[in-house]
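RECORD TYPE: inverse folding
INPUT: structure tokens
STRUCTURE:
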């Protein structure tokens, strides 16, 4: 038997059904016995949505009103009634089992599954298998229109069915016409048989992509384009940093993701950057996923774009034998441990986790992350056979192992591959540094500070927006912008984050701009404009975040100016003094100097390439993400001419010239100044530097004195 099903939402209708996240408001169904060609009672049920604001198209097509829907039952109750009435009709027809049949796939995949997932109740098994009437019709009548162009009306016209849509209620005509189409397909001339229904996966299958197990990394890299279909991959952007592969699969509920097809993207520091690549089982599923562009995960909207198979393989394709063996156990929950003592052994980790959360395979379920030279990074991945054991492990977050507290996070197979491979390909944390790392020239201006609300924040900018677009957006208010007052906020990959800050000439001007431009359109997006202070602006530019609860501290203690790399150097450019103090490379690890050599040494300055210093300077803000082990520190070497030019400038060196610096890594988080001085007892250090260990401004000192790393003179 078939249960012919039709539905409508409070928003878009037809080919865009479900694309606007609007809730279901109507279900109409009827049981059809394919053998006896009898039908059951036709049922029509209204559904009470949480939001009864109906779109104009919905009102026009369906004739429904908010007043009528307000008296209906909620979706969970309607689905219970659906199951009961279908069972009753089947008994009358003498049948026991059935399969759904709908007009296309949108109602099942794009409406019912996503909505029930968001409302946290389960659909019955019948909604995981269904026949697509459009596909069945095209298989029965190959000369008819393409599947994507089919509608109930076009199928009825092809068969010459004389039905008048205006004579029936909305939904009733659709179901009756679908039943008539099915009976035509069952006639002697066609004898169509419904054999292969569409299926919806019950859950996302975790584990390594099968490609990892069958191809070596070398072969994989040489045949990327042949391995993954470019028409099956999407890129999701704007994900919360704590999102797991299961969270992403839930966002795409109703669509079939390939096994191991969720790859969370990491930045160069190993942190999640808010993006993921998702591989679906077919191009049809990928196209449906693209319709979920700007759908919500919690309170955040997620952007969905096309991606390529090559991009997917760069994130999820390459692996080592060690990782492949670790990930070969299927349906495992992966937990990432961070902050392990460098001397920690497998026995130490197993003892830390305890008997309440046994590791799958014992020692075989542990994977320590190491640098190419064999040094441990302090990270490890652990396999658990079920969610209960993983939850018990997560309860040990920030418990002590040895003398250090351990952080635990959920992880994915793709993240294991990325972290291990990136560590393998990376250089040691403190390599031999290039020649003196350059320069800071005194600036003619500085970034605003203080609590005066003379700045505005632009949020939601198109990613293609540039300075000119912002100035056009500001309109007449452009004349009230301070010189060098537009600051684009980039993410850690150097791409626009959608935010910008603008310094206005006064708080009144900032208020007027916020009132005039808030939610004004730029290209195809509306932009939110908020008044803020220079202090808040600086906080975000240095890596912090602004949210409804106030300021959130920067997730990384060492933010960096963008862009990170340049093809060639020109004349040195001017950057703000405070920013220069924060990014003094010499403050990290300078070359050893002697008092005799310091007299002839060029002055300590910070260099910034001219081509990056446009009229408005760009800064990088980090995405919030789980902390990870530190990675390679990058530097920009100055051309000799820039150092010579900087040496002639008048300035005050930030660091004293005599002596040498050492960098301490791996300190306990509760280490204070006294413990560090005690550690160096017996060695001569500069007696004037007790208060901070390094002579920098308070702002620079607070950035450099991270909990695990100190720079000592």
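DESIGNED SEQUENCE:
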């Amino acid at each position: 038997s078939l249960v012919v099903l039709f539905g409508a939402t409070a928003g878009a209708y037809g080919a865009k059904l479900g694309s606007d996240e609007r809730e279901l408001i109507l279900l109409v169904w009827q049981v059809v016995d394919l053998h006896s060609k009898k039908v059951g009672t036709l049922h029509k049920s209204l559904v009470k949505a949480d939001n009864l604001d109906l779109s104009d198209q919905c009102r026009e097509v369906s004739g429904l009103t908010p007043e009528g829907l307000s008296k209906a039952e909620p979706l969970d109750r309607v689905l219970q009634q659906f199951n009961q009435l279908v069972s009753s009709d089947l008994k009358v027809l003498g049948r026991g089992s059935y399969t759904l049949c709908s007009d296309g796939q949108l109602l099942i995949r794009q409406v019912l599954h996503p909505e029930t997932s968001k409302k946290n109740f389960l659909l019955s098994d019948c909604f995981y298998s269904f026949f697509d009437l459009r596909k069945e019709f095209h298989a029965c009548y190959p000369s008819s229109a393409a599947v994507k162009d089919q509608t109930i009306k076009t199928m009825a016209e092809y068969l010459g069915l004389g039905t008048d849509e205006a004579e029936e209620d909305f939904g009733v005509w659709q179901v009756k016409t679908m039943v008539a189409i099915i009976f035509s397909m069952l006639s002697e001339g066609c004898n169509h048989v419904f054999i292969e229904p569409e299926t919806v996966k019950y859950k996302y299958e975790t584990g390594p992509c099968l490609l990892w197990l069958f191809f070596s990394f070398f072969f994989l890299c040489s045949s990327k384009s042949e391995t993954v279909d470019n028409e099956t991959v999407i890129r999701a952007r704007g994900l919360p940093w704590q999102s797991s592969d299961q969270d992403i699969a839930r966002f795409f509920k109703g669509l079939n993701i390939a096994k191991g097809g969720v790859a969370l993207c990491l930045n160069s520091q190993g942190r999640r950057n808010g993006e993921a690549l998702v591989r679906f089982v077919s191009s049809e599923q990928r196209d449906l996923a693209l319709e979920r562009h700007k759908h919500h995960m919690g309170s955040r909207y997620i952007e969905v774009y096309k991606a390529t198979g090559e991009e997917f393989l760069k994130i999820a394709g390459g692996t080592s034998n060690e990782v492949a063996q670790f990930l070969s156990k299927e349906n495992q929950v992966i937990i990432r441990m961070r902050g392990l003592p460098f001397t920690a052994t497998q026995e130490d980790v197993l003892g830390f986790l305890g008997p309440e959360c046994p590791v799958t395979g014992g020692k075989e379920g542990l994977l320590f992350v190491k640098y190419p030279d064999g040094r441990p990074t302090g990270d490890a991945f652990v396999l658990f056979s079920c969610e209960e054991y993983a939850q018990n492990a997560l309860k040990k977050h920030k418990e002590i192992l040895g003398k250090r507290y351990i952080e635990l996070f959920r992880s994915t197979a793709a993240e294991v591959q990325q972290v291990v491979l990136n560590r393998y390909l990376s250089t040691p944390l403190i390599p031999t540094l290039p020649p003196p790392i350059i320069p800071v020239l005194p600036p003619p201006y500085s970034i605003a500070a203080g609590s005066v609300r003379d700045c505005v924040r632009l949020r939601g900018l198109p990613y293609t927006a540039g300075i000119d677009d912002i100035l056009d957006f500001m309109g007449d208010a452009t004349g009230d912008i301070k010189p060098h007052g537009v600051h684009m906020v980039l993410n850690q990959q150097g791409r626009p984050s959608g935010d910008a800050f603008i310094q206005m000439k006064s708080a009144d001007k900032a208020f007027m701009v916020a009132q005039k431009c808030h939610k004004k359109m730029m290209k195809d997006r509306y932009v939110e404009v908020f008044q803020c202070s220079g202090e808040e602006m600086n906080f975000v530019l240095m890596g912090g975040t602004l949210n409804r609860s106030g300021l959130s501290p920067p997730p990384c203690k060492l933010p960096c100016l963008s862009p990170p790399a340049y093809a060639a150097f020109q004349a040195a450019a001017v950057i703000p003094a405070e920013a220069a103090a924060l990014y003094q490379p010499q403050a990290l690890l300078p070359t050893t100097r002697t008092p005799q050599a310091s007299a002839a040494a060029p002055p300590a300055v910070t260099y910034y390439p001219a081509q990056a210093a446009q009229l408005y300077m760009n800064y990088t803000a980090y995405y919030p993400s789980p902390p990870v082990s530190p990675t390679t520190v990058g530097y920009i070497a100055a051309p000799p001419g820039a150092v010579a030019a900087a040496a002639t400038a008048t300035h005050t060196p930030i660091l004293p010239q005599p002596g040498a610096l050492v960098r301490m890594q791996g300190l306990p988080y509760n280490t204070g100044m006294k413990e560090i001085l005690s550690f160096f007892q017996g060695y001569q250090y500069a007696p004037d530097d007790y208060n901070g260990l390094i002579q920098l401004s308070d702002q620079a000192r607070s950035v450099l004195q991270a909990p695990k790393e100190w720079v000592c003179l």
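NOTES: The chain is about 30% helix and 20% strand.
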